[in-house]
Amino acid sequence: MMTKLGVLLAGRGAVAGAEVRDALAGAGLTMRSAFTLTHLAGGPVNQQTLIDLLGVDPSALVTVLNELEAAGLVSRQRDPADRRRHIVVITAAGSRVLTVADQVLDKADENLFAALSPSEREQLQGLLAKVADSGSCGEKY
């Protein structure tokens, strides 16, 4: 009997998730904080847009932003166009931490996908992106 793809992916996903969480913890981040910083790396984003991009409950994002702000990795500023809104900006320290996170994640990928050639890794990335884009995977974080 062939193993179901979802079961196989869930099993490897648990292993990959643990390795990625450990790698990020070494950089002082969680998965949620890393996703958030990644979205802010391109420039300031208003908080509501960030909620939409990450596909999360507003209270979950506020918790992450509070942690990142306390660590000096992001700052929130009032939107001059609408004082009710906040603009979230990655700080220089946040950018440095994100660079470290990228490096530790590269190492985690090397460990997780050592058996795959570069073209197989690219193919897997494309297939997983296609599954994620189908909307069948739930929240992004």
Annotation keywords:
141 residues, alpha+beta, Arc Repressor Mutant, subunit A, three-stranded antiparallel beta sheet, globular, Winged helix-turn-helix transcriptional regulator, DNA-binding, MarR/SlyA-like, WH_DNA-bd_sf, transcription regulation
How does this structure look, described?
The chain has about 140 residues and is α+β, with helices and mostly antiparallel strands. The chain has a domain at about 30-110: Arc Repressor Mutant, subunit A. It contains six helices and three strands. It has helices at about 5-25, 30-40, 45-55, 60-70, 90-110, 120-135; strands at about 45, 75-80, 80-90. A three-stranded antiparallel β-sheet has the order 1-3-2. Strand 2 (about 75-80) and strand 3 (about 80-90) form a beta hairpin. Helix 1 (about 5-25) packs across helix 5. The protein is globular. Keywords: DNA-binding, Transcription, Transcription regulation. It comes from Paractinoplanes lichenicola. It holds the Pfam family MarR_2. This is Winged helix-turn-helix transcriptional regulator.
